[in-house]
Specification:
Layout: H1 3-18, E1 24-25, E2 34-39, E3 46-54, E4 57-65, H2 69-78
Length: about 80
C-alpha cells in the first residue's frame, strides 16, 4: 500500500478507535460486525473497513473496495 494511502487508512482506524459506533452495525449472520465506509482521498473508490469490539479491544477484520466485499467477508469469517 502506498504511503499516502496507508496514512489515510491509519487515520480512519484512529477515527474508529475514538468512536467505535462510527460504522454501521450489520444484522443477521454478520451481527456484531461493524462496517465503516470511506473514500480514499487520492482515488475516488469507496472502501469498506470491517471491525468489531472484543471487550474493550478493537479487532480489525477486513478492508477492501465495495465490489464483492460482503461475499468475501462472509467467506473469510466462515473459514476462520
Amino acid at each position: 500500500m502506498p504511503k499516502r494511502e496507508k496514512e489515510i487508512l491509519d487515520q480512519e482506524i484512529r477515527n474508529i478507535a475514538d468512536n467505535p459506533s462510527i460504522g454501521e452495525e450489520k444484522k443477521g449472520d454478520l451481527r456484531e460486525i461493524f462496517v465503516h465506509k470511506f473514500k480514499k482521498k487520492i482515488k475516488t473508490a469507496e472502501y469498506l473497513l470491517t471491525y468489531r469490539m472484543v471487550g474493550e479491544d478493537l479487532e480489525l477484520i477486513m478492508i477492501g473496495p465495495h465490489e464483492n466485499y460482503y461475499r468475501d467477508l462472509k467467506k473469510y469469517l466462515k473459514n476462520r
